[in-house]
Amino acid sequence: MSKKKILMLGGSAQQVIAIKTAKQLGYYTVLCDYLPDNPGQYEADKFYAVSTTDADAVYRIAREEKVDGILAYASDPAALPAAMVAEKLGLPTNPSESVAVLGVKHKFRQFLAEHGFACPKVYTFHPDDDMEEIKVAVKDFSFPVVVKPTDSSGSKGVSILKDTQDLDKAIGEANSYSRNKTLIIEEFIESSFPTVIGGDIFVWNGKIILYGEMSCLRDDDGKGLIPIGKKKPSGLNNKQVKRVHHELQRLISMLDIRFGEMNIELLLDRNDNVHFLEVGPRAGGNMIPLQLSDAFGTDLVKANVLVAMGENPQIEGIPREGCFVTYVLHSHKDGIFAGVDFSSEIAPYIYRKVIYKQKGEPVEIFNGAGKAIGIIFLHFHNEKQVEDFCERKDEFVKVILGK
């Protein structure tokens, strides 16, 4: 009897684990990735040098290979092509229309406003629109405002403005990360909680069976825009947790999301109303599935593969003791990677290290999630230890640059 086949869209360093997991489950793995140096090609059973966003090419490969499922693991750009192709072939998928809504911010904001979810004022425009017209359109907005592309993730191309003085610069930054050339300006949400809430949820048969909300660590001691890690438990009180869970399930039900891991990013305003910044129709980056697997004692990578093949995800979702933290290794300047120095104080709490760079390779200044050097996973006994790490992280972890 021949093996069932799964088509994997994306073979980056963070996606290799999904390919390996699929093989361990006994599936024949077919991979699409246009980057010639993707590491996934050396793990997959068959490789096609094809862009994951080329839906027509992906469809041809899926049909020719007679695949039984398609998985765009931890990939924003590939999520919609995966849904469209799976829908066309009658394979397990969420509605492509819903995936399209979640995939671009202006459509998502429109959906939220139309369905009674908390939502700030938003203005959608093209980067080449007249600057004076844009300024007139947002003159009644409450500042500060956020300028961002509608089709990027990891806070790439996002700027916060106190006025319109640097609007042209912010638009240029957003445009540099935009594929669809549709940008938005939206009011900044004053939060009642000190950080953005991020993480993942897992859906099965239209119900959220694992809530993995976490507190986000950001650059500039948590006040910046670029994600540098997550911590669980999140620190939300019981009332806030219930409100977040209720709104998430309401959103999932309205969009008819049937299964899979979804990446979430949200804020609670001063009245604890839940504002969704993003709900990505795929597993989160920065190895969130691994972190949540550790925190819940389950295997979310395995669950992602299983549901893509129409199988039960076998998730337990029972939180384990202690605090689980990830920290993204990064540099504040360009240079040559020479290693990472971990202090003896913090070393006992690090249980996994994933380093993307080899010694001698170039390192770029960390101005977006794609410039990460690696990720470390830590398990603390209590919240006080987490706070100490967050306050002194630059003392505990030092990226060494050579010449």
Automatic annotation (TrEMBL):
<dbReference type="InterPro" id="IPR016185">
    <property type="entry name" value="PreATP-grasp_dom_sf"/>
</dbReference>
<dbReference type="GO" id="GO:0016874">
    <property type="term" value="F:ligase activity"/>
</dbReference>
<keyword id="KW-0547">Nucleotide-binding</keyword>
<dbReference type="InterPro" id="IPR052032">
    <property type="entry name" value="ATP-dep_AA_Ligase"/>
</dbReference>
<dbReference type="InterPro" id="IPR005479">
    <property type="entry name" value="CPAse_ATP-bd"/>
</dbReference>
<dbReference type="Pfam" id="PF02786">
    <property type="entry name" value="CPSase_L_D2"/>
</dbReference>
<dbReference type="InterPro" id="IPR013815">
    <property type="entry name" value="ATP_grasp_subdomain_1"/>
</dbReference>
<dbReference type="InterPro" id="IPR011761">
    <property type="entry name" value="ATP-grasp"/>
</dbReference>
<dbReference type="GO" id="GO:0005524">
    <property type="term" value="F:ATP binding"/>
</dbReference>
<dbReference type="InterPro" id="IPR041472">
    <property type="entry name" value="BL00235/CARNS1_N"/>
</dbReference>
<keyword id="KW-0436">Ligase</keyword>
<protein>
    <submittedName>
        <fullName>ATP-grasp domain-containing protein</fullName>
    </submittedName>
</protein>
<dbReference type="GO" id="GO:0046872">
    <property type="term" value="F:metal ion binding"/>
</dbReference>
<feature type="domain" description="ATP-grasp">
    <location>
        <begin position="109"/>
        <end position="309"/>
    </location>
</feature>
<dbReference type="Pfam" id="PF18130">
    <property type="entry name" value="ATPgrasp_N"/>
</dbReference>
<keyword id="KW-0067">ATP-binding</keyword>
